[in-house]
Amino acid sequence: MEIAARIAEGFIGMFQKGGTTFVGLVTGIIPLLIVLMTAVNALVRLIGPERIDKVAMISSRNVLLRYLVLPFLAVFFLTNPMAYTMGRFLPEKQKPAFYDAAVSFVHPILGLFPHANPGEIFVWAGIAAGITKLGLGLGDLAIRYFLVGLLVIFIRGLVTERITAIMWARRSAPEGQQEESTSEASAGAAPAVETGGAAFASGEEA
Long-range contacts of range 191-199, CB-CB < 8 Å, 24 or more positions apart? Predict the structure, then answer.
């Protein structure tokens, strides 16, 4: 009976811990998140979506801007998952690399701007809880997390763009060879001759 009672206490205690964590979120991160989301939405309204789109279009022309500035702007202003729609300004060959960069940045940005990905704020909250228990500040961690995230998305963007170019070339090569073979076969076909008002292939008799 004592063992069963301990198991029951542990089971209930797990949910009590969850309730305590939820209360901490309600009184801590959730109000901050709501305020940030409201502020960013107001900023987007003030700047104008068309101006943000124009900046995104300009950013897509340079590799540094394409895989550093554009993913940051997309995640910051449009948040996850709408951030990926910024890829519409890029050529088809560069869209996979932009997506890879943007999707890799939805977590590193949470330390400074939790509104960008509120659905997965528990990732940052878990890290922050451990750091807080160690008596360390969250400011340095958030900045380092953000800067390392920028470096990682830039590397991923470059690598994915290169991989996409290789795969694109492999896909296009067989199609080009097939078209070339078809044109050679057509050129080498025997010409048709007219006999008695009907067209027959050369060398055939009616």
Answer: none
